[in-house]
Amino acid sequence: MANLEQTLTNAIEATRSAQRFYGLLSDSTHDAAASSFLRSLSLREGAHGQAVGVMALELTSQALPPHAEHFIDGARVDSSWRTVDNVSFVQAVQLGIDSSSHAALMYEALADSSPPAAQELLMVLARQQEAHVALLQMLSRASKARARWQPRPLPEGGFPQVLRDAVMAEHAAASHHAMLGRRAADRSTRVFLQQLAADEQKSSDALDVMGLEAFDSAFPARARPHAAGAKLFAEVALPPSLDLHMALEYGLLAQGLGVLMAEQLAAQAPAPLAPQLQRFLEDQREEASTLAVRCDTYRRAASAEVRSVPAHELKYILEGWWKRESDPG
User: Fold this and answer.
1) Residue 289 lies in a domain
2) CB-CB contact of 49 with 19 (8 Å)
3) Which of 198, 265, 279, 315 has its CA 20 to 30 A from that of 286?
4) How many domains does the chain have?
């Protein structure tokens, strides 16, 4: 039986190994949608790894071993994927399914041979991997899934319209997450989704302010119709009642789209806005890590200790101005 500290190092290194592998595959494929999707998987693994690192600080005061046990490297990914050149989008989704399935089994095996203090953590990681598999299986059946990950060039009309579309995308995601909260299986899951909605609305407001200050009256009043769904997966049929694991994985999936959108904004921004949008991109990447840590906090907290988002903030998030802006004419 590995001791607590070695088990924690094993779990952290497993996420880092998968993060590196997804990153390498992303850089090696010419399929833009596959590359973007693989970057989102890498982002997710980084978020989970940071969350485990935070939990390690709470579980032990001892220094963690510098290296994982030898079997951890590659345990998350079937070796046959290492010889695939120029991965397609369909292959990338299947890789995510295979890798997460391997991970769930690996974390369960680690739990069986670990001290009690680590067993609960490892079983939580296993359940999160299973939730990720379920989401990716839904994604693999969705005919429009590939288009979600295809980077979009600037349209005719220039950057102000793209920025207005991003304002709408963030607000629509906020409203969607708040509505998902009504389907939550328990209070902790509901509040997690409400807080996720509040974070999305904060991003929407920040982009709106940037646009108004930079372009004034030239900042478009309306987003284009497609913008409301830019960070959402309407084609993925979620279960009627979401638990915290599924809520986290859905949030991380959407956050992957958010980071891709922020990368496009930062790369195409006019010079006066470039520093602000670069900071916005960094905030979006950090939000993924925050999501994973917050999920664990809500999972372990007693129901009464989880603080809800204030009612007036939820009302603001759920206002329908974004629907009116998406109407033609």
Assistant:
1) yes
2) yes
3) 315
4) 2
In a shared domain, residues 322 and 210: yes
Give the span between the Cα atoms of 150 and 152, in whole angstroms: 6
> Is this model's pTM higher than 0.70 or not?
yes
In tens, the pLDDT along 149-199 reads: 988 776 666 899 999 999 999 999 999 999 999 889 889 999 999 999 999
Type and span of the H or E element at 272: none
* Spatial CB neighbours of 102, under 8 Å, sequence gap ≥ 6: 75, 76, 77, 78
Distance CA(170)–CA(174), nearest Å, equals: 6
8 A C-beta contact, residue 122 and residue 155: no
> Which CATH number covers residue 36?
1.20.1260.10
**Rg (Cα) of the chain, in Å, rounded?**
20
- What's the token pair of residue 101? 């399935």
Structure tokens that stand for 137 in this block? 């299986």
Burial of 69 (0-12, 13-18, 19+ CB in 10 A): middle
131 pLDDT above the threshold of 90 = yes
